[in-house]
Design goal:
This protein has helices spanning about 20-30, 45-50, 95-120, 145-165, 185-190, 190-200, 210-220, and strands at about 10-15, 35-40, 55, 75-80, 125-130, 170-175, 230-235. The protein is α/β, with parallel strands linked by helices. α1 crosses α7 and α3 runs parallel beside α4.
Length: about 240
């Protein structure tokens, strides 16, 4: 038995049109899963990199966007990657920026997990992988709603594992470190911030989306069947510093 083989499994990956979500969708596909790449924009580039699969338009500005997705066909693996980030000093942060980020990063994640669980619990098998963040553990700077949402993702991951592990669902999270994606473009374009971050990473480099994708394959595969409620830091050693 290959403990990392996903043949015969169907996966839904949200926010799969670019960056970490795209890398996860491609990696799951190459591990054998039939992947549904979901995004609020078309996932044509992702589909071209995958081995089969299809795309689905889902905009989590509506936190209940996925409420009807899981009843039509069995989905074995859910990866909640879709997310927003807005930057401003806490003293100036707007209510709109707070609500927009919380709705996508936290509220939509919970109700997508709920819809998945309602379909998967009767089957007694399923894997949920929530994309958390280093800011699930740290405060960060100028991203108050993002920090609040990612703390919430870590907490909900543990709560859902507590409720569903004995019924066959594994719920875990991945906390990416500083990864070269659109979300970190503002940091990477600031030479001082980029260098300060790099100097703290024991691995001596920024991460890539593939670093996260291979961890997602592990959490989706039978190899991780006894892992429940974990938030795996994939950060080059940042949190150990």
């Amino acid at each position: 038995m290959n403990a990392f083989d996903l043949s015969g499994r169907r996966a839904l990956v949200t926010g799969a049109n670019t960056g970490i979500g795209q890398a996860i969708a491609v990696a799951l596909s190459h591990a054998g899963a039939e992947v549904i790449a979901a995004g609020r924009r078309p996932c044509d580039e992702t589909l071209a990199l995958m081995q089969g699969g299809r795309a689905l338009l889902l905009d989590f500005a509506d936190p209940l966007a996925a409420r009807d997705v899981f009843g039509a066909e069995p989905i074995d693996i859910l990866v909640n990657n879709a997310g927003l980030i807005r930057r401003a000093d806490a003293v100036d942060f707007s209510e709109a920026d707070w609500d927009d980020v919380i709705d996508v990063n936290l509220k939509a994640l919970f109700f997508t997990c709920q819809a998945f669980a309602r379909a998967a619990l009767p089957r007694g098998r399923g894997k949920i992988i929530n994309i958390a963040s280093l800011l699930s553990f740290q405060g960060g700077i100028r991203v108050p709603s993002y920090t609040a949402s990612k703390h919430g993702v870590a907490g909900l991951t543990k709560l859902m594992a507590n409720e569903w592990a004995a019924r066959g669902l594994n719920v875990n999270g991945i906390a990416p470190g500083y990864i070269e994606t659109n979300n970190t473009e503002a940091l990477r374009s600031d030479p001082a911030r980029r260098q300060a971050i790099l100097e703290r990473i024991p691995a001596g480099r920024w991460g890539t989306p593939d670093d996260i994708a291979q961890t997602a394959v592990f959490l989706a595969a039978p190899a991780s069947d006894y892992i429940n409620g974990a938030i795996l830091n994939v950060d080059g050693g940042w949190m150990a510093r």
